[in-house]
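Input/output pair, single chain:
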Amino acid sequence: MGVPNLYPKFILATLNRYSTRFFYGWLITAAAGVGLCFGYAGSVIYGFSSFILPLSAEFGWSRRDIGLAFSFMVTTVFLVSPLMGVLLDRYGARRCLLTGTLLFGLFLSSLCLLTPDIRHFYAMFVLLGLSGTATTAICYSRLLVSWFEKRKGWALGLALTGTGVGAMIVPPLVQAIIQTTGWRGAYLALGALNLIIVAPLLYKFVLNSPAEKNTWPDGIPQVDGDDDEQQLHMRTGFTLGQSMRQGVFWKIVIGIFLISLSQTGPFVQLIPILRDVGLEEFAAATTASLLGVAVICSRLVCGYLMDRFFAPFVAGAFLVAPVFGFIAFALEPSIWTAVMVTVLLGMAYGAEFDILGFFCSQYFGRLSFGKIYGILFAVYSLAVGVAAPLAGWSYDQSGSYVEMFVAGALVNLLAVCLILTLGRYPDLPVQNAG
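Output:
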């Protein structure tokens, strides 16, 4: 039994005509972009800071206590991500995405019933981490590298701009709803977007691989064109064990941990930072949406460049950007340096998951892509879980974020230096089909 068709017939007819004339993978890319816009990253990560002050005002919770919920969530993602990678490699992205999106939407909506007991808040964010892992770049990147080869950087960049759109529209949207109906209405609206828009879209259009549409990666037929050739690219690469015995694997692990550690604090506390330098509530939310604009531009440009130039060099150029903003804000906290931090942080955030998916594919192949990406995403989430409460604690202790920015600049620079030493892409083996 299928689900109700929630889309007008003329839209479906247009999309079907498009899919017969153009490569179906671009529809997959579009669906992934919408899912990322309103999923874990768009709704919870980018929307989190908008709820800090309203929750603190209503329940009397400190910024550190609220930030701890973020830590519980990302710690859950850290624990679940490797398992999600295993499920992706075994069952495909479609099943994981549909199940995760439905549960995530339900849990997010239920936050409108939040009680003053902060343990309730923490428990719900654990559930958001558990379900939201299936709506992250892990699943969508696994899906896209199955559909693309020569244009995977561009496809990843296009789809992952969805999180940039989320970063651009979610803060002002949440702020507008909070001012109109309160923070409970804002949580209900974010959950409904996943249930009413994202889930039906994924159900209608997402397929695990080009073979299910009787086509090939990039829409380019192989020489023989048989079923074995259609699936050959999925058997190309190293096993998880082979990957973990390579130095480049551990360089990426450490590099992504340090990048996340240095950039999470300013990101999670972005709205309070903008408020502290003198911006009013809606002005701060609108300014924070500049991060989304930077993410979108960065994702597109970075994805395009990685298809054409050596990816670690491209990565270094984007990931080093926040260092300049961090130093400027530490020297002179002001509205303009806070805006500078917002934009440059968006440049780095825009590149991170383009880079992570591209690195996994280029250095380790598709054979164990889900498992490897799951581990890397877990490491990224672990650093987020460490950095989020540290940022709140730093403010509670000193009354400013200057120390956080100084430490972040130094750690960020170290991570970029490590990424630049990854070395050339390896010749990937083809594993036996059995």
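The mean pLDDT is 82. The CA atoms of residues 139 and 354 lie 13 Å apart.
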